[in-house]
Amino acid sequence: MDVRDQILAAATRQFAQNGFDGTTLQTISDEVGIRKPSLLYHFPSKDALRVAVHQKMLDHWNEALPRLLHAATSGEGQFDAVVSEMVAFFTRDPDRARLIVREVLDRPTEVSVLIKSHVKPWVDIVCNYIKKGQERGTIYDDVDPEAYVVQVINLVVASVATHACIGELVPAAQSGKVHRRHIDELVRVAKASLFKSVAAPAPAARARRASR
Amino acid sequence: MDVRDQILAAATRQFAQNGFDGTTLQTISDEVGIRKPSLLYHFPSKDALRVAVHQKMLDHWNEALPRLLHAATSGEGQFDAVVSEMVAFFTRDPDRARLIVREVLDRPTEVSVLIKSHVKPWVDIVCNYIKKGQERGTIYDDVDPEAYVVQVINLVVASVATHACIGELVPAAQSGKVHRRHIDELVRVAKASLFKSVAAPAPAARARRASR
DNA sequence: CCTACCGATCGGTAGG
DNA sequence: CCTACCGATCGGTAGG
Lengths: 212, 212
Hints:
The structure is a homodimer of 212-residue chains.
Chain A: H1 3-18, H2 25-32, H3 36-42, H4 46-71, H5 75-91, H6 94-106, H7 108-118, H8 120-136, H9 145-161, H10 163-166, H11 180-192, H12 203-210
The first copy, chain A, binds a DNA duplex (16 and 16 nucleotides) through residues 3, 24-26, 34-38, 40-41, 44-46.
């Protein structure tokens, strides 16, 4: 891996973990194994490094989103695909979620314009899908499409970002994946508040009931 | 208002807005109208000030929670009371939500032990209520009580904390309260994914449908 | 990519 | 509650 990518990786980790103001160019340089002025040769300022970190994540996101939105086409399957891929995207590297939440808190106005240009179009697509479902009668009539989508995104990102801390309230059902219960319930809440047809409980839920 | 409270108020606002590391004792002193060493007379260190800020919020919370949990006793009413009071508590001063989210990100292990001692007992109470509802048949069988409660708390706090930024994706239905749609949908999602009986749509939802 | 160095600002102290 | 001041560290530059 070339030096520039090492710097980006270290910066991403530390910005997510300790925040932008809580991170110094010194600690990033230390992690990479170079001197501070060498870092400033690759990125002209701390702020330029921050922008580069977020640009890289945005690129990842813009590449993943269209693929999954066009992958599935049938009713409930599409919804599962979108939510599952979102969860997968963030759980694969929880620092992504933490980074977003921090940026939303630190620079709300800047993130707001970025959301309107990059996220809004995708939200609208899912909204249209929900409205069609309402006309077809498969989706609850009193769902507020825009607000619903925003809440689900909010729920997924916040859930992953805070899981390391909050997740300990929900002990693992068994060894292995610690956050399966957490994520399963998230998906269940999102679906149960959207689709009229209550499908048969998922295997995980059935197993849980059996063990009580 | 005495000086100590002024310092606490200014610190709360700035910690929530710019984070702990993004706030300096100088800017807090400036807001209060005193010199930095005078601030350090009231609070021995920056960290002591942080602890005091969080202690004050925790006191508020510990005072509000038992009152509302014992206020309502009947089925769906109790749930509404708890969620509504939670939303009210945080929207009354959104900085409270931002402060919590920041602390969860900045000091996950410390917050974790605090949650286990101060929040866990209340979560257990709500969980028992959910389990009774499941036996009685009023609550969905495949709800995972602990995970559900954690997700709802997560949703409320994150929703309020990020509303200033994310909320702009959901334009106001009309003048006045900008976030009514946002909050209404939050409560709807929480309830629709819990209670089997789908009550008549709320007035707001009916009005929204009529306007389409 | 390094050494050497800079002004500014940080949290905190001395002393009144 | 103030003035005066401190060592440490910050982001960043000069120059090679």
